[in-house]
Amino acid sequence: MWAYFRRTNVILFITLQGCFLVILTIIAYGYSYNWQDVFERYQEDQVKVNAFKMIDDIRNEELLTGPFTDEQKAWLNRRATLYGVLIRYGSDRQTIWFDMFSRIENPKVAAIQEYPVVAKGTNRGLLQVAYFKQMDKLDPSFLAYQSMMDRRSALLFGIAALLSIAVSYFISRQLSENWNRLKETAGQIRAGDRDVRVPIRGPEEVRQLAVTLNDLSAELKKQEDWRHHLMEDLTHELRTPMTSMLSQLEAMIDGIYEVDIQWLQQIYDELIRLSRLMTDMEKLSEAEAARFTVHIKRVNMINLAEQVYRNFLPMAKSKDIKLRFMNPNVPCYAEVDRDKMVQVVSNIVSNAVKYTNPGGMITLGVDWRPETTIIYCHDTGIGIGPQDLPYVFNRLYRADKSRSRFSGGVGLGLSIAKALAEAHDGTIELESEVGIGSHFRITVPNVYKS
């Protein structure tokens, strides 16, 4: 039962309906008060009109001064009752000739209005007029008016309440449908359907969530495809040398091949290839745990980068690639693990040498900032397409699968470099364009804080 009341459409309906009812109640009370105020103003205006009628009647009957006889008092009483008012008449507030107020105990009267009675330019008396509110309870016209206003108010309130229920239900249903649609899509993605997409419609927040969910589904599909290719590549990398060694050993056991140095050397090369693959996997595991094993010292980053530059000069020359070093000619010191940082830079430069064609150029340099040191490597190699850029630092990911296998790599160098850089609280950024080249930028803080 409580689960039902936790549903989005129920919560929205109750919230909207509650707000509508509060607003309608305020409007109903305001409406009733407004009409009551209008009616009281109307009564006050009527008292004023009837007061002037009484003055005219008093003048016509020549009842300007008292004291009055019983017959005259009866006449004044009839006229006042006819006009529906209470009157008090005298020469002033102290000298009273006729008084209807004193006949009623605790009278509830409207504000008393006073009017001078003037005849032939002379002030002959003071007429006080008021409306007896208790007469409303006996006045058929007032009772009919009040009943009519109550019926209209109840009718309007009922119609407004029904409309508010309909609007609340419609809005809550529409909004909850958007969330239900997102929930169903998320369930399909959870079940393994990576091709499902959410229609982008509804409120802006729902649209943004739909876009995010679609992007998540697309990203999961890419990751699954990548993991599938990863297993294929890893299986191939392991199967190829093992198949080759098994076939050669079987041939030597069966006597097809003689056991000589040439065949043993081929088997040895395949074992070296397997060992290199296992070593790279081990290095990646160590790199991801490097934050627990880094040995920080203050290191001259220019000397570090120049050492890597000298190590790769022979390899670059053998491929007819021009490798140059850009010295900033300013002191550049940072707190790093020298051996692991050398490995980071070496992996980046090695990757540049592998994917730069003969006649190309690789530039390795250092830049200094007050808080960080930057080591950059720019090459004129084959470049990386935009569809591969987000994944080049993933394990065993290779943008150019045909080249990497022949060049001896299995797609772990950049993963190791990224893990080691992050162990120093640093980052690796990559900008690349197919056919133009790539630009790697390694940024490490000058002061190690982890």
From TrEMBL:
SUPFAM superfamilies: ATPase domain of HSP90 chaperone/DNA topoisomerase II/histidine kinase (SSF55874), HAMP domain-like (SSF158472), Homodimeric domain of signal transducing histidine kinase (SSF47384). Its main location: membrane. Residues 233-448 form the Histidine kinase domain. The keyword Nucleotide-binding applies. The chain crosses the membrane at residues 12-31, 154-171. It comes from the Bacteria. It holds the Pfam family HAMP. Keywords: ATP-binding, Cell membrane, Kinase, Membrane, Nucleotide-binding, Phosphoprotein, Transferase, Transmembrane, Transmembrane helix, Two-component regulatory system. It is found in: Cell membrane. GO terms for molecular function: kinase activity. Residues 173-225 form the HAMP domain. It is a multi-pass membrane protein. It is an enzyme of class 2 (transferase). It catalyses: ATP + protein L-histidine = ADP + protein N-phospho-L-histidine. Its EC number is 2.7.13.3. This is histidine kinase. It comes from Paenibacillus gyeongsangnamensis.
